[in-house]
Amino acid sequence: MTYDVFVLGAGMVGTGCAHYLQESGKTVALVDKGAPGMQTSHGNAGIIQREAIQPYAFPRQLSVILTAAANRRTDIRYQLPAVLSFIRPLRQYYHYSAPARYAGIAREYASLISLSLETHNELIHKAGAEALTGTHQWLALSRTDRHLEESYLSADLLAEQGVSHTKLSAEDLKLREPDISPLFPGAVMWTSPRTIRDPSALVQSYVDLFLSGGGTFISADAQTLSRTRDGLWEIRNDQGDVSQARQVVVALGPWSTLLTAKFGYQPRYFLSAVITGIIKHNPVSN
Q1: Whole-structure pTM value
Q2: How far apart are CA 279 and CA 71, in angstroms?
Q3: Beta bridge partners of 3
Q4: Rounded distance, CA 129 to CA 195, Å?
Q5: Contacts 24+ apart (CB under 8 A), 122-127
Q6: What angle, 0 to 180 degrees and rounded to 10, lies between the N-to-C axes of helices 12-23 and 199-212?
Q7: Measuring CA to CA, which residue among 28, 215, 25, 27 is closest to residue 127?
Q8: Each residue's pLDDT tens digit, 81-107
Q9: What is the spatial distance between Cα 23 and Cα 27, in angstroms, rounded to a whole number?
């Protein structure tokens, strides 16, 4: 069968793309070699973060760089072989984290995040998945007074873009969370996120919505993608059957560049690959 679009990758991004392409009148096949939502989307924190409109920039403070280089931080960890194999992407990551370049990237990134809650709320309602979600707040704790002041300033800037929050002093924090160490001077409590009890199950509910609208799920390895002589895209499923599409959306997360490189596409910069592949970010939160 020939479809209008293949969407490669049945995670949260791919499933969302498949649904909205379908709504626009396209015939869509969602392609994944595994069960939907069982890769990156399975291991996330389970929070739809309206406040997460600023991507993590490469650190430029000397103190952070030195402690990160020594692998002594809790928010940045790396394995040396991975770093050595990602020298070029790391250089690009540093280059595009310069203040002026970062500001432009952050504006574009924010445009993707700004409607995240509204869009998910719409999909959750359509999919009948309310039981999988909650409306809890989360805390971003600070270990030092300086970091707390910086967090307050950053939160105020985000408030100008419609992101709600509450500033908590050490006393406020103790009243709200009695078991938290008194060594924390305070926190920012983000009040707008929606929490997900089972991220994989939520993705599956979106897939079920897509299928109920006439969409198709193909169990196949995206690496089998090829181009035909007449310009169509072709993929082979686990049984050897071939399907074709006029266009392709690549939503394979950190594996995206492995596929696109086969067709000569080189990304301008590799922020997602670097962050996912060699840097593990663990913000202190509750």
Answers
A1: 0.78
A2: 11
A3: 245
A4: 12
A5: 123/16, 123/19, 123/206, 123/209, 124/202, 124/205, 126/209, 127/202, 127/205, 127/206, 127/208, 127/209
A6: 20
A7: 215
A8: 877 878 888 888 899 999 999 988 888
A9: 9
Position 277 pLDDT exceeds 70: no
Band of the pLDDT at 284, cuts 50, 70, 90? very low
Where do we find the tokens 């997900």? 196
For 121, residues 6+ apart whose C-beta sits below 8 A from its C-beta are 194
Beta strands in the chain (DSSP E): 2-8, 28-32, 47-48, 133-134, 138-142, 165-169, 186-190, 194-196, 216-219, 226-227, 233-236, 242-250
Angle at 105 between CA 103 and CA 109, to 5 degrees: 115
**Closest C-alpha among 202, 158, 273, 159 to residue 48:** 202
Q: Which of 86, 53, 71 is nearest to 280 (CA)?
A: 71
| β-pair type (242-250, 2-8) | parallel
Higher per-residue confidence, 24 vs 112: 24
Q: Which 3 state secondary structure label does DSSP give 91?
A: helix
Contact (CB, 8 A) for 182 and 190? no
Residues contacting 199, CB < 8 A, separation 6+ = 12, 37, 41, 42, 44, 46
At position 71, the amino acid (one-letter code) is: N
Tokens standing for 194? 């929606």
Q: Cα(239)–Cα(103) distance, rounded to whole angstroms?
A: 48
Please name the residue that has the structure tokens 């938290």.
Answer: 180
Q: Which amino acid is at 180?
A: I
Res 154 pLDDT > 50? yes
